[in-house]
C-alpha cells in the first residue's frame, strides 16, 4: 500500500508498532525502511535518554544496561518510506454483521465487497499488540457481531447468525504470553479497545535543541565551551553570540583543553594572556562558582542550549527600529513594547527565526501515560537503542523573566538567596540556589526553591501559549515549549505537527507584541471550574493544561497563583 505523508506526520502517526487509519483501512507500522541517521550530539542524547529511562523505571540497573548499548538517532527516509501491514485482519459485513478473517470472498449472506475492518485490538503493558480472538458457533462455524455504539469492548455481543445462539459478551479472555501483571491492574490478561485509543499506544518523547550539524556545537566548544556561554548569559546576552565576548580565564582554559592541550599547559597559557590584558575579568561566577557541581553543570548546560538556540541570530525589539519605520510604529517599538515587557515582568522578548529544535521519540507505553503505573517500551535498532526524530528549523519567541522580580517573588515565598548587588550577581544567585526537580516526580507538598521556580516558569509558558495561539490564529497544538528554568527563560516555538504557517510568531512580534503581552497580564485568569480547581492544585485542563505533545512535563508544576493573586508574580509589576 502506498500513501504520501510528511516526515512530521510519520513521526507522530507511524512509529513502529503503532496503528493508523490509512486509505479507509487500519494498518500497523512494521518498520521504517532505511532510515537516515541524524547528526546530533551523541553525549547529550544518551544523557537525556538515560534520564528518561530512570524517570520511567526508577531502576539504575536498567540505566546501566542501556548504557552498554549504542544509541542511534534517525529520521524517516522519504524515498524509502515506512512499511505497514493491515491490522487487525478482522472484517465485519455491513449488511448482516458476520465476522470473517479475510475480505477476499463474499459474505455468506450474499453481500459482495461490503466488509468493514474492526477497530478493536488487544494490547498489554509489555508492548504486545494482538488481534482479538472471536468466538465462533461450534455447530455452524459462524459468528456475527452486533452493532457496537461505544468503545467499551466488554459490551460487544457475539452470536451465531444461523441459530441465533449467544456465544459471548466481550472478547474472550486472553493471557499475555509475557506472564507479567499490569502495574496497578494486577492482571495478566490483554485489554481490548479501539486501536486509536491513547491507552493502546502513547509515544514518549523529549525535545532538544539540535543545531543540525556538529559545526555549531564545535564552534560553541571552541569558543570556550559551556563556561563562556554561561558568562555570556549572566552578563545579559549583550553580544549576539558567546564567541563575540572576550575570553575569561576559565573559558580560555576550556577552549585549549578541548583542542588537545593539557590542562596544566592551558592554565599557564591563560595566566600569561591575563597578565597581558587579553582576557576579561568576568570569570567570577559569584555564588554560582561555589554552588554544588550539579547546579553549575545544569546552569552551563542550559546556557549552552540557549547559545545554540540563538546561534543563527535573534531579533531584539531595538532591532525593529530601522530606517523607514513609520512614526506610529517607531513610537510603539520605542515606548509601547518596552513598557509592555516590563509590565509583564519580563526582562526581554526576542525572536529566534531559525530555532533548531528536534523532537525525539524513544519509546511508547500501552495502558496509560503515568510513570510508575505502566512500563516503558524502548525502540530497538540494529546495534542497540533507536530514537526516531524530526529535526527542523522553526521560529520561536524567547521570554526571559526579570531576575530582580524572580528574586523578590522567591523571597516572598520564604526562600533565601545569596546576596547580589547587580543583575549579573542576581542571575548567578538564582542559578546557584536552584535544584530543579525531575519532570517525572509529582509536585511536592513542601515546595523547594527549584520546584517553585520551575512552577513559575512553566505556568508562565502555558499562559503565553494559550494567549499566543489566539494572536497567531493557530491551535495550541501547533506550538511547543522549551524551558530553561535555571535562568528564568523559556521558548515558545512553532511545531510543524499542526496547522501552523511559519511567520505567525514573527507577525505577533513585529505588530502585536504590546497587545499580546497586555492580554497575558490582563485576560481572564480565573478557572471556570473554581473553586474545585483552586482547591486541587490550581491548574486543570480548563485553565492551564495543554496537550502532552506540547507539554513535556505531564502538566505538572503548574499553579495559577504563581502568576496571579496576592502572591502572584505578575502582581509585583503593578
TrEMBL record:
It comes from the Bacteria. This is Uncharacterized protein. It comes from Micromonospora matsumotoense.
